[in-house]
Amino acid sequence: MNKKTYLPKQDTIERKWHLIDASGKVLGRLAVEVAVILRGKGKAFYTNHIDCGDFVVVTNASKIVLTGKKLDQKTYFTFSGYPGGAKFTPYSVLMAENPQKALLAAVKGMLPKNKIADRQITRLKVFKDDKHNHSAQLAASVK
């Protein structure tokens, strides 16, 4: 019995591109789907200490839906580090001005808090409408 564990090398990992249309999808459920792809958890050789995730292009971020009263009650928090530097932005304002930031914050919160997550979040490309500049991925798989 020769049972060996397979660990992929960083340079042998093949990264795919996933194109996701966000129109009509709920923010949290979409963020879970994107985070799983970015981490590579759907791959057979997933290992948590190796970055084996794929690229994700999300279009129509302005058409993301928030359920319940979250649009009025939920706030986006930023802190500059200085006294009085806390900013609370309601999601109604955030979704009107910059819906990409709302999805990016939701996905970032679902990734691990380490250096691998910093590399994984850079592979996420979010666009407000259905136009994006990744022309090679126009024919990619649509979810």
Describe the biggest sheet?
A: 4 strands, parallel
Reading side by side through the largest sheet, how are the strands ordered? 5-2-1-6
Structural class: alpha/beta
Shape: globular
Cα distance spanning the termini? 41 Å
Tell me roughly what share of residues is in helical segments.
Answer: 25-40%
Short description:
The protein has 143 residues and is α/β, with parallel strands linked by helices. It contains five helices and six strands; from the N terminus they run βαβαββαααββ.
Plain-language structure description:
The termini are far apart. Helix content is 30%, strand content 17%. Helix 1 (27-39) packs across helix 4 and helix 3 packs across helix 4 (99-110). A 4-stranded parallel β-sheet has the order 5-2-1-6, covered by helices on one side. The protein has a two-stranded antiparallel sheet with strand order 3-4. With 143 residues, it is α/β, with parallel strands linked by helices. It has a domain at 16-65 and 98-131: Ribosomal Protein L13p, Chain: A (Alpha-Beta Complex).
Q: In terms of topology, how is this protein built?
A:
Elements: E1 17-21, H1 27-39, E2 55-59, H2 70-73, E3 75-79, E4 86-90, H3 91-97, H4 99-110, H5 115-121, E5 124-126, E6 141-142
Parallel strand pairs: 1-2, 1-6, 2-5
Antiparallel strand pairs: 3-4
Helix pairs in contact: 1-4, 3-4
